[in-house]
Write a structure and sequence with these properties.
heterodimer, A: alpha+beta, 2 domains, three-stranded mixed beta sheet, two-stranded antiparallel ribbon, 5 strands, flat, B: alpha/beta, Rossmann fold, eight-stranded mixed beta sheet, 15% strand
């Protein structure tokens, strides 16, 4: 955030249009680059939430699955606040990787691609 | 492509009207003035304009079409610039060429040009369809030109993706029609925003400049007469960088002076 954005916020004004432009571009390019249309992304989001909620109770209001892009690398970022772990996970097949998952294409290993934070 | 030492550079943007042809004309003249034997190839067969910007529209006899059909020699089709004899234009053929033109045809033409020129600039059509694919087939390097607007940056991103998959490199970026005052007020995408998003090295910044329109009216590129206007300087500096010289980039924030400019710079400070 720049000083101008801060002043605008204090005065209850809209952010400077360059800020809006940058944010809109980053979002639209993440979609362009991954070739995922919004419906597919929505379907994927629903399925991810469904799988995760078999194991833990998540806050659906706060949950967010989105594409983010940096340096021409797009990553799928899921932020799913956990309310509590379920006593009996429904499919007791294999242990679920709760903290790390494969990013969409490649990304630096240190990136928090999959964040499951305790709420 | 075997001609060693000779370079073929694609000038492209995706979106139309951002300044591809103006850059090709001015860069071509500026490179020629530096002593490089330069050919500019109008690869926009549908809507050709490079001849007009160079003021050569009345001197066209043959085009790329006749060269490909072998009904004339390459040197017969080339239009030499009178004031800058190091520069020659190979005009685009008839729009009907689009029906049969293939990437291999463009490769053939550019290979021919590279035999007798140090640098071949290919003025690419807008879009990412066949015209772009044909033009890109013949290029080893690319310059992507964009303006600091969402639509131009988005289209540039698509083009960069396509150039990457073709193994074209280096790909360098020119940002055109920069308005320092709007950038200072954060009402225009900043240079860093554009370079961060597109992740390309910056080859040059061209300030918005009315003289570009004047020079277009006359068919005399700004770099031809040693004009000192901001765009003329930017194009000359781009040419020097293309030849490997290190020329510092202008800082849009430093173009403006006075108290308002200072305040604008202060307001751009990142606080968190």
């Amino acid at each position: 955030m720049t000083l101008r954005d801060f002043v605008n916020k204090l005065l209850g004004r809209q952010p400077a249009s360059a800020t809006t432009a940058r944010e809109r571009l980053q979002l639209v390019l993440a979609h362009d680059r991954s070739d995922l249309n919004p419906e597919l992304l929505e379907q994927m989001r629903r399925e991810i939430l469904e799988v995760v909620s078999r194991y833990v109770e998540i806050d659906l209001e706060e949950g967010d699955v989105s594409l983010e892009t940096e340096d021409r690398v797009t990553a799928l970022v899921a932020n799913l606040p956990i309310k509590r772990a379920k006593a009996v996970p429904q499919p007791a097949a294999e242990p679920a990787p709760a903290d790390e998952a494969e990013p969409a294409p490649t990304s630096e290993a240190s990136d928090p691609i999959w964040t499951a934070s305790q709420a | 492509m075997t001609t060693s030492g000779s370079r073929s550079i694609l000038i492209c943007s995706g979106k139309g009207g951002v300044g591809k042809t103006t850059l090709t004309a001015n860069l071509g003249i500026a490179l020629a003035r530096q002593g490089m034997r330069t050919a500019v190839l109008d690869a926009d067969f549908g809507l050709r304009n490079l001849d007009l910007l160079l003021g050569l529209e009345n001197r066209i006899v043959y085009t790329a079409q006749e060269v490909l059909a072998e009904s004339c020699r390459l040197d017969q089709a080339l239009v030499k610039h009178k004031q800058e004899p190091n520069l020659a234009l190979l005009p685009a053929g008839n729009p009907r060429m689009l029906e049969w033109l293939k990437p291999e045809d463009m490769e053939r033409i550019v290979a021919l040009l590279r035999e007798s020129f140090d640098i071949v600039l290919i003025d690419c059509p807008a879009g990412i369809e066949d015209g772009f694919k044909n033009a890109a087939a013949a290029a080893e390097e690319a310059i992507v030109i964009t303006t600091p607007e969402v639509s131009a940056v988005r289209d540039a991103d698509r083009v960069i993706g396509l150039l990457n998959t073709r193994g074209i490199k280096p790909i360098q970026l020119v940002i055109n029609r920069v308005r320092p005052k709007m950038m200072a007020n954060q009402e225009m995408l900043a240079v860093d925003d554009v370079t961060d998003i597109l992740a390309l090295p910056l080859l040059g910044l061209v300030l918005e400049d009315e003289q570009v329109i004047v020079s277009t009216n006359r068919g005399e590129p700004l770099t031809l007469n040693g004009s000192q206007s901001p765009a003329a300087q930017a194009y000359s500096n781009i040419a020097r960088r293309v030849c490997g010289e290190e020329v510092p980039l202008i800082d849009p924030a430093k173009v403006r002076r006075g108290l308002r400019a200072k305040l604008g710079r202060l307001m751009q400070t990142k606080i968190f």
